[in-house]
Amino acid sequence: MNWKHWLQAVAAALFGVQSEKNRQLQFRGSPWPYIGLGAMAILLFVLLLMLVVRLVLA
Predict the structure, then answer these.
(1) What count of other Cβ atoms lies within 10 Å of the Cβ of residue 11?
(2) Which stretches of 1-58 are assigned E, i.e. beta strand?
(3) CB under 8 Å to 1, separation ≥6 — which residues?
(4) For residue 13, what pLDDT band results from cuts at 50, 70 and 90?
C-alpha cells in the first residue's frame, strides 16, 4: 500500500466510515503506518481546535 491508501484509511477511520473490503485489506499489512498517521491526524485536529478556540475567544 502507498501513502494515498494510508491517508484514505486514516481519514475514513476518523470519520467512522469504512467499507468491509477496505478494512480487510488494511489488516493484511503492518499496522504502524496507520498508527503513525492516525496519531498525527489526531494531533493536527487537536491543534486546529485549539486555534479555533483561541480565535473565537480573542
Answers:
(1) 14
(2) none
(3) 25, 26, 29, 33
(4) confident
Q: Can you tell me the distance from the alpha carbon of 45 to that of 52, in angstroms, rounded to the nearest whole number?
A: 11
Per-residue cell: 15: 470519520
Q: How many domains does the chain have?
A: 1
What is the pTM (predicted TM-score) of this model? 0.70
Residue with cell 473490503: 21
Domain membership of residue 8 as a residue range: 3-57
Buried b (16+ CB within 10 A) or exposed e, 26-52: beeeeeebbeebbeeeeeeeeeeeeee
